[in-house]
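Our consortium's second objective concerns turning raw sequence data into structural hypotheses that experimental partners can test. To show how far this objective has progressed, the report includes one record in full. It was chosen at random from the queue rather than selected for favorable results. The single chain below, 203 residues long, was entered without modification.
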Amino acid sequence: VEHAALVTSLELLRTRTADEVRWRLHGDLLSDLLSGETEAMGTVVERAGRLGHDLTLDHRMVVVALSGIDRALVDTALQRAIGRSDDWAETMTPQPLSAVHHDRIVVLVPDIGLTRRARDDIAEKIRALASPTTPKAAATSIEIGVRSGLADYALAHRSAVGALEMLALQVTAQARDQRLARGVVALGRGFQLRPDGVIELAK
């Protein structure tokens, strides 16, 4: 029994260590990609390829912000969210790339003929996976398209973060619930918030 328990513990440790290494590699890659720095751009495509991701494809970027969480619990919530997102990503072909970047979850989903309905479903799936289970906590996401040019990733990320910050500043929890009951919240600068909590480019 003791031997079996030891073997199980070692296997769990190996799995956790492998997950942490993968998260760190994904995080470093996304950090460089979203920085937009010329020097970093020279290696990201090759590094992504070694991790099984093709950055030359068009992508949908989903950025998720968590709110209503005690500061001491944010890192744990983000780690759990990334774990759930990675488990889901492993079921997809080609696989999305996900990581934590500046206390937000960023997921790059290859856009190979995705319909509007499929994009909406994926964005909501990612938001749901990232949602904390603690009372009063919430997850809000924005989904935006990225063309295959590497510079577009940084631009799309800045737009997504700007929209999320605008929402946090403009809409209190009570006002948000009231407006969502009536439909979509207009955020200005070409963004809108759907009733399911996903922000998107206004059409």
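The partners drew two points from this record. The radius of gyration is 18 Å. The chain has a mean pLDDT of 80. Both points have been shared with the crystallography group to help prioritize constructs.
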